[in-house]
Amino acid sequence: MTRLPKWVDVALIPFINLLLALIVSGLVILYIGESPFEAISIMVNGAVGSTYGWGYTLYYATNFIFTGLAVAVAFQARMFNIGGEGQAALGSLGVALLCLSIPWPHWIIALPFAVIAGVVFGAAWAAIPAYLQAKRGSHIVITTIMFNFIASALLVYLLVNVLKPQGSMAPETARFPDGTHLPNAYDMASWIGLPFSRSAPLNVTFFVAIACCILVYLLIWRTRLGYQIRAFGQSEKAAVYAGINPVKITMITMLISGGLAGLMGINAVMGEAERLVIDPVQGAGFVGIAVALMGRSHPAGVFLAGLLFGMLYQGGGELEFEIPAVSREMILVIQALVILFTGALDNMIRMPFEKLFARAGA
Amino acid sequence: MDLGTIIPILDATLRSATPLVFVCLAGLFSERSGIIDIGLEGKLLISAFFSASVAAMTGSVWIGMMAGIVASLMLSMIHGLASITFRGNQLISGVALNFLASGITVVIGETWFGLGGRTPQLSGSGRFAPIELPGAATLADVPVLGPVYSDLLSGHTILVYLSIVTVALAWWVLFRTRFGLHLRAVGENPESVDTAGISVVRLRYMAMVIAGVLCGIGGAYLATGLAAGFVKEMSAGRGYIALAALIFSKWRPWYALMACLLFGFLDALGNRFQNMELFGINIPTQFMQALPYILTVVILAGFVGRAIPPRAGGQPYVKER
C-alpha cells in the first residue's frame, strides 16, 4: 500500500468526489430540462448573496456541524453512529423541557443549562445502543437505526398526549418564555451597529458550534482519551493489548457523539422554533453523515463541510422558489451523491491515484 | 373480539406483511452473502415509484412491475459496485442509496406528472386485481371455516400468494441447492469459497441481483397492489422494518415470514385501533408503531435468543496474492 501525499488525500480526492457528485446532479437537472449552470448560480446567490441568505446558510450549517461532529467522533473510534437523528430529537426534547419548566430570567443563564440538557438527553439516547455494542456485541448501526424510529414515536406520543397545551390542536408545545430567547443574527449585528436580515434564524448557537469544533479537536488530538479513541479505531486488538478498555472507550465515544447530536436541539428548538414541534431535526442527523464523510472526520473539515451543506440547503430552497420545475428534493439527490462518491465509491478515485503515485515513487 | 373483527385485521396483516416479506428475503440473500444492505428502503421506494409511473403510462401493471424491478436492480448494482468492486463501506453506500431514492422519485415524478411527487391514480389493468380462490363463494356460508377461507385467504392479489411461494423458494435455494451452500459459505468465510475455486465476486453480485429483483416486486406491490399509485416517501420505513424482521428471524426464510407477519399484524392493529386497552392499561398507537423496533433491539441485545449475523457481513473481500 502506497501512502498518498497529504494534499491528495485531504484535498484533491474529496474535491474530485464532490465534483463527480455535482456533475451527476447537473445531469439530473439537465434531464428535467433546466440549465445546471443557472441552477448553480441561483443556489450560490440564494445561499450567500444576501444577509438573509447567509442567515439561513449559517443556521443550517450550525445544525450540520453538531450532527457532523457527532458522526465524526464516532468514526474516530471506527463506529458508525447513524442515530444522530434520534439523539438530536431527544436533545431537542431535553432543551424544550428545560425551557418550559423554569422561568428563566435571561438567556445567558438559560444557555449553559440548555447545553447540559441537550448533551444529557442526546447522550442518554446513545447510551443504550452503546452499551449493547460494548457488552452484548449488538451492531451499533442497526440499534441506532431502531432508536431513531423509537425516538420519533416517543416524541409524537409526548407531544400529542403530554406536552401539548390544553385546547390546542397542533402537536407542539407552548411557546417558550421570553427569558429563553436567544439573540439572533439581527440582534447581534445591531450590537455592533451592522445591518442584518431580521427574519433569518441564525443565532448565538453558531458560536457554541464553533466552540464544539475546537473542543472536539482538542479532545481527539490533544488528550489521552482522544489518543485512546483513535487507537481503538485504528486497531481494536492493538488497543486492547495496550491496556485500553474497549467497553469504556465504546461507551465514552458514543456518549460524546450522542451529546454532540443532542446539542443541535439548542439551535433548532431554542434558537429558531422557540417551541418543540413534531420533527425538530428535519433530517439533519442524516446530513451529519455526509458532513463527517466530506470533512474526513476532522473538526475543521466538518466545519467546512457543514458550511457547504448549509449553502446547499438554503440554496436548494431558493432554487425551488426560482425554478419551480426543480423540486426541493433535488437537495436530497445531491446529498445522496455526495455521500455515495465521498463515502462509498471513494476507492474508485483513490485506487487509480495510489497506482499513479506508486509508479511515480518507484 | 369476535370473528367479524378478527378476520379484517388478519386480512390487513397479510396485506401489510407482503412487501415486508419480499424486502426481508432480499435482505436475507444479500446478508447471507456477506453484504449488509441498509438500502432496502431505497430500493423499495424507487421500485414503487417506477412501477406506478410506468403502469400509469402504459396501463399495464406487469410492465410497471418490470420497470420497478429494473430500477431496483440499478440501485442494487450501484451497491454491488461500491461494496464488492470498490470495497467501500456498505453501510454508507446503503444510506446514500436511500437518500437517492427518496430524492430522485420526487424530482422525476414532479417532472413527469407535476402532481407534487405523486403519480396519477391507478385503476383497472394498472393495478393488481384481487384473485378469487376456487370455491370461495360456495364456502362463504360455512361457519368459521367459510369466512377464514373466502374473506381472509381468498381475494388477495397474486403478489400476496407469490410472497409465500417465494419464501419456500428462498428456503429451497439457500438450503437445498449447491448455489445456496456457496452463498451461505461466502457470507461466513469467503476465503474458503475462494480456495474452492469459486468466485466470491460473482456470488455476491448474484446475491445483489436477487435482492434487487425481490425489492422490485415488493415495491410494485406497494404502489400497485396495496395502494393505487405512488405517493412521496410511501415506503415509510418498511425497508427498515424488513431489516428488523431479518434480524428477528435470525436470517432464516420461514422465520422471516413469521416475523413479517408479526410486524404486519402490529401494523394492522395500529391502523385499526387508535387506542388499545390491554389489562386495563391504555396502549398508545405510537407504542404499537415503535414495537417492531423495540422487539428487534431486545433480540439484538441477546437477552431473548441471541441473533448472530453472518460472520463476513460488512467486510469487503480482498483476494490474497
TrEMBL record, chain A:
<dbReference type="Pfam" id="PF02653">
    <property type="entry name" value="BPD_transp_2"/>
</dbReference>
<dbReference type="GO" id="GO:0005886">
    <property type="term" value="C:plasma membrane"/>
</dbReference>
<feature type="transmembrane region" description="Helical">
    <location>
        <begin position="249"/>
        <end position="270"/>
    </location>
</feature>
<protein>
    <submittedName>
        <fullName>ABC transporter permease</fullName>
    </submittedName>
</protein>
<keyword id="KW-1133">Transmembrane helix</keyword>
<feature type="transmembrane region" description="Helical">
    <location>
        <begin position="110"/>
        <end position="128"/>
    </location>
</feature>
<feature type="transmembrane region" description="Helical">
    <location>
        <begin position="12"/>
        <end position="33"/>
    </location>
</feature>
<feature type="transmembrane region" description="Helical">
    <location>
        <begin position="276"/>
        <end position="293"/>
    </location>
</feature>
<dbReference type="GO" id="GO:0022857">
    <property type="term" value="F:transmembrane transporter activity"/>
</dbReference>
<feature type="transmembrane region" description="Helical">
    <location>
        <begin position="140"/>
        <end position="160"/>
    </location>
</feature>
<feature type="transmembrane region" description="Helical">
    <location>
        <begin position="200"/>
        <end position="220"/>
    </location>
</feature>
<feature type="transmembrane region" description="Helical">
    <location>
        <begin position="87"/>
        <end position="104"/>
    </location>
</feature>
<feature type="transmembrane region" description="Helical">
    <location>
        <begin position="300"/>
        <end position="317"/>
    </location>
</feature>
<feature type="transmembrane region" description="Helical">
    <location>
        <begin position="329"/>
        <end position="349"/>
    </location>
</feature>
<feature type="transmembrane region" description="Helical">
    <location>
        <begin position="53"/>
        <end position="75"/>
    </location>
</feature>
<keyword id="KW-1003">Cell membrane</keyword>
<dbReference type="InterPro" id="IPR001851">
    <property type="entry name" value="ABC_transp_permease"/>
</dbReference>
<keyword id="KW-0812">Transmembrane</keyword>
<keyword id="KW-0472">Membrane</keyword>
UniProtKB/TrEMBL annotation, chain B:
<protein>
    <submittedName>
        <fullName>ABC transporter permease</fullName>
    </submittedName>
</protein>
<keyword id="KW-1133">Transmembrane helix</keyword>
<dbReference type="InterPro" id="IPR001851">
    <property type="entry name" value="ABC_transp_permease"/>
</dbReference>
<keyword id="KW-1003">Cell membrane</keyword>
<dbReference type="GO" id="GO:0022857">
    <property type="term" value="F:transmembrane transporter activity"/>
</dbReference>
<feature type="transmembrane region" description="Helical">
    <location>
        <begin position="95"/>
        <end position="115"/>
    </location>
</feature>
<feature type="transmembrane region" description="Helical">
    <location>
        <begin position="251"/>
        <end position="269"/>
    </location>
</feature>
<keyword id="KW-0472">Membrane</keyword>
<feature type="transmembrane region" description="Helical">
    <location>
        <begin position="290"/>
        <end position="308"/>
    </location>
</feature>
<keyword id="KW-0812">Transmembrane</keyword>
<dbReference type="GO" id="GO:0005886">
    <property type="term" value="C:plasma membrane"/>
</dbReference>
<feature type="transmembrane region" description="Helical">
    <location>
        <begin position="205"/>
        <end position="231"/>
    </location>
</feature>
<feature type="transmembrane region" description="Helical">
    <location>
        <begin position="69"/>
        <end position="88"/>
    </location>
</feature>
<feature type="transmembrane region" description="Helical">
    <location>
        <begin position="158"/>
        <end position="175"/>
    </location>
</feature>
<dbReference type="Pfam" id="PF02653">
    <property type="entry name" value="BPD_transp_2"/>
</dbReference>
